Fold this protein.
Amino acid sequence: MCNLYRMTKAQADIARLFNARVSEGANFAEEIYPGYTGAVIAEGRIRAMVWGFPLSQKSRKTGEPLKPRPVNNARSDKLDSFMWRYSFAERRCLIPLTAWAEAEGPRGGKTRTWLSLPDAETFVVAGIWRASEEWGDCYSMVMTDAAGAAAEVHNRMPVILAPDRYEEWQGGSIDQAKALCRGWTGPLEIDRTGEAWFRR
């Protein structure tokens, strides 16, 4: 599952590429982790949202509430579950990125493998969003079974959307959106780095 991605383009570049307006205060980092703020295109605007829907947790020892956990990946085969179904039906968004990372290697020695579309300035994966009491607006990335070259790295991958499917994802029917939740079989660039997955 994707727990790290990059968006190295500036807001102005994203606005130009996707013909979207920039919301005030839409700041985000270049490397986005669960619980961090990322750029999302929703309702025709580039908006800053927290990556992950908040999931309430309690301490097993004390029963006291803990900090919510960000659930940053929504499986395409679980989109009808309570956690996702209203957002999937009513609030689908576009997540622009330049690459996503998966962890490869032995336990304790995993490294970062970056996947991207060759010759693309940036590309889009499918997302859903909602408002939350904990973090304000937040989003989750839609994941599906990996296909093509991505299957060599991990068994799941983000739902990559071709440009002619952006409007269909955002405004189409539930059935139309579900039909887009399939693995990308086009070319992918895979960069297996020596970077440690967990940076100390």
